[in-house]
Specification:
The complex is a heterodimer of chains A (about 350) and B (about 290). Chain A has about 350 residues and is of the alpha/beta class. Chain A is built from 15 helices and 14 strands. In chain A, the strands form two sheets. In chain A, strands 1, 2, 3, 4, 7, 8, 9, 10, 11, 12, 13 and 14 form a twelve-stranded mixed sheet that branches. Chain A is globular and about 60 Å long. Chain B is an all-alpha fold. Chain B has one domain: MetI-like (MetI-like fold), CATH 1.10.3720.10. Chain B is built from twelve helices and two strands. In chain B, β1 and β2 form a beta hairpin. In chain B, α2 packs across α12, α7 packs across α9 and α8 runs antiparallel to α9. The model of chain B has no long low-confidence stretch (mean pLDDT about 90). The chains are: A alpha/beta (about 350), B mainly alpha (about 290). Chains A and B meet through α3, β9 and α15 of A and α3 and α11 of B. Chain B: It is a multi-pass membrane protein. Chain B: Belongs to the binding-protein-dependent transport system permease family. CysTW subfamily. Chain B: It is found in: Cell membrane.
Chain lengths: ~350, ~290
């Protein structure tokens, strides 16, 4: 290599470094800090996240997951400190506390008194006087349906899903074992909190009957699309999270809690114990729990559901409150049960039953 | 002695050329495979991975009907897809090679593989819309009065097979076409001189000589189809599970990497057996 060639190459390399620093500098200057949150998909709506990012000059990196098992697997495979904020099913918060994943939150700085009483869930969120998580959103896994195609009176009785073939081929099932198996248990007169391995054979037989009537079993997007496009008329395991967001465009899409009841789900938010940005993460929790954050989270583009903070009512429109059935909440909360919270053994057995159900 | 040493040093040359490929294979195939084989002998107990040495995860496959059924489903779907794709791709490749003028063949091939250019996931979801109750196929059938009720096409094995066949017909067209254009016209002339008609020439001359192209494409179809997760997940509607879906369930829902690894190795064994079946046609050395 001649001296001239070396000189030219060196010049090009320096120019390259300069150019890349000019191009990349503005990108890195966009936010001074980053926050990593492990969340359900409703938190990925820019309308929810951008106000916080602007206020704190921070980039919020969001990783979606479905199912606590998947979230725990992600955390297991990460380095301590990789994650700052954790959104997790309310019934699974004790698992996260047992695994020493969560940091105590400053409860006095959070709007605890504004949270609906049934959603405070101290038994799940508080340990030794310390609050590790707070409910942020809740809803129901029950029955969504198209009232132009389905008689709403039929939907008041959950057993129509498995005891007759009136809606054979018109049913979709939400592909998440905990709520659907819990819902079937409720339909069979069982308490989700008392479920044991002995209950599984009856639940399995009922699931198989539902499968015989079902057209498909799909995750959030697939099941919602099937209902919205008319591929099916009933979604087992659906609820306001499926139909509320679509009701403005298609008022025939509705949901109901049958007389037997349904599953009440709730998701909670907390801060990871190993977070290196606990202060900022706590600010994020405060923002999500504020009436403004709650209204945006309740009407997130991914799915709608009730905000845990009752003060969010003032931020929602009448149409939004009707779609969420705000005025029915008292009776709905009373007639619903929490997700089953199985131990590891029962959880494995339930997943085996679910796999058999998919394969049926 | 000196001459032997010198010859050995010269022999290292070819190794230097293949070293990058060997390193690549070692890093991205052999090492992950060894890790997977080791993990397949571990156990998942609660939320913990226990580094035990057990074949329990392999036994699970034979003990639990839904695992075994997933393998049967995978083999059935793969067999249907492979045979259907060959039947459709062969005439397609033959038309391009024999009936399309040489100067248009390149364009015809580009048009044939055009669907390859779209995202695999998007293509699967597109099929879901096409096959839906209110999709174009059902609307057309209802419109011309062939059916009174929409056919249940989407969210079924039929939908999965259609999604796969659409993809693999393109692949097989390429491998069969490559074989057909290399075939000397003298073979057909000789057959004709000996009194064979077009059908007999095709059956006894052209088809046997294009078997390598068919088999290479069929093997690729088999491997890609049996290991695919997206198509059955999007188009099958979870009405039956195939092996990749069952493997994903172990990882995504249970973080049970040992069982997932054991199932993946069993799937690899099936692919290896298939390779041995196809091996006589998949010779890489030049004649």
């Amino acid at each position: 290599m001649t001296k001239q060639v070396r000189k030219t190459k060196l010049k090009n390399a320096v120019l390259g470094v300069l150019l890349s620093s000019v191009v990349l500098a503005p990108l890195s200057a966009q936010a001074t800090e980053e926050l990593n949150a492990l969340v359900w998909c409703d938190h990925t709506d820019p309308a929810l996240i951008e106000p916080f990012e602007k206020k704190f000059d921070v980039k919020v990196n969001l990783k979606e997951y479905e199912g606590t098992g998947a979230a725990l697997a992600i955390v297991e495979q990460s380095q301590p400190g990789d994650w700052d904020v954790f959104v997790i099913d309310g019934v699974d918060v004790p698992r996260a506390i047992d695994a020493d994943l969560l940091a105590p939150l400053p409860a006095d700085a959070l709007p605890m008194d504004d949270i609906f009483p049934a959603l405070r869930m101290e038994a799940n969120h508080v340990r030794d006087g310390k609050t590790y998580a707070v409910s942020e959103k809740f809803g129901y896994n029950t029955i969504s349906f198209n009232k132009a195609k389905v008689d709403p009176v039929d939907m008041e009785d959950m057993t129509v899903l498995w005891s007759s073939d009136k809606y054979k081929g018109k049913i979709a099932v939400y592909d998440y074992y905990l709520p659907v198996m819990g819902m079937v248990a409720v339909g069979l007169g069982k308490k989700t909190a008392d479920l044991s391995g002995a209950d599984l054979p009856e639940i399995k037989d009922t699931l198989f009957k539902i499968k015989d009537n079902a057209k498909l079993v799909g995750e959030v997007v697939a099941s919602q699309t099937a209902l919205a496009t008319g591929e099916v008329d009933i979604l087992v395991g659906g609820g306001e999270w499926v139909t509320a967001g679509l009701s403005a465009d298609n008022p025939d899409l509705d949901w109901i809690l049958p007389k037997q009841g349904g599953m009440r789900w709730s998701q909670s938010i907390g801060v990871f114990k190993d977070s290196k940005r606990k202060e900022l993460a706590t600010e994020f929790v405060k923002y999500i729990l504020s009436p403004e954050g709650q209204a945006k989270l309740a009407t997130s583009s991914c799915y709608w559901a009730m905000p845990a903070n009752s003060k969010a009512e003032a931020q929602l429109t009448d149409q939004q409150k009707t779609a969420l059935r705000w005025s029915d909440q008292e009776s709905y909360i009373a007639n619903s049960q929490l997700y089953p919270a199985p131990d590891a053994k029962l959880d494995a057995e339930m997943q085996d039953v679910w796999t058999e159900f998919l394969q049926h | 002695m000196a001459a032997t040493w010198k010859r050995k040093r010269i022999d290292l040359g070819p190794w230097a050329f293949v070293a990058p490929a060997l390193l690549w294979t070692a890093a991205f195939f052999v090492a992950p495979f060894i890790v997977m084989a080791v993990v397949s002998l571990w156990e998942r107990v609660g939320t913990d991975l226990i580094a035990s040495w057990t074949f329990a995860n392999y036994l699970k496959f034979f003990e639990r009907g839904h695992f075994l059924q997933a393998m049967v489903n995978s083999l059935e779907v793969t067999a249907i897809v492979t045979v259907t794709s060959i039947v459709l791709a062969y005439p397609f490749a033959w038309i391009i090679a024999e009936k399309v003028p040489a100067r248009w063949q390149r364009l015809a091939l580009v048009l044939a593989i055009l669907p390859f250019w779209t995202s695999y996931v998007v293509r699967s979801y597109s099929w879901l819309l096409v096959l839906a109750n209110n999709g174009i196929i059902n609307q057309a059938l209802l419109g011309i009065g062939l059916v009174d009720e929409p056919l249940d096409l989407a969210n079924s094995r039929t939908a999965t097979v259609i999604g796969f066949v659409h993809f693999f017909v393109m692949l097989l067209t390429l491998t069969i076409y490559a074989n057909l254009v290399q075939l000397s016209p003298n073979y057909r002339k000789a057959a004709a001189d000996l009194g064979a008609g077009p059908l007999r020439t095709f059956w006894h001359v052209v088809l046997p000589l294009t078997l390598p192209g068919i088999m290479v494409g069929a093997f690729l179809t088999f491997v890609l189809c049996i290991g695919d997760y997206i198509t059955p997940q999007v188009l099958g509607g979870n009405n039956e599970l195939l092996m990749p879906q069952v493997i994903m369930l172990q990882i995504g829902r249970r973080a049970d990497f040992p069982t997932a690894s054991a199932l993946a190795i069993l799937l690899m064994i099936v692919v290896t057996i298939a390779y041995l079946g196809f091996a006589r046609w998949i010779r890489l050395e030049r004649a």
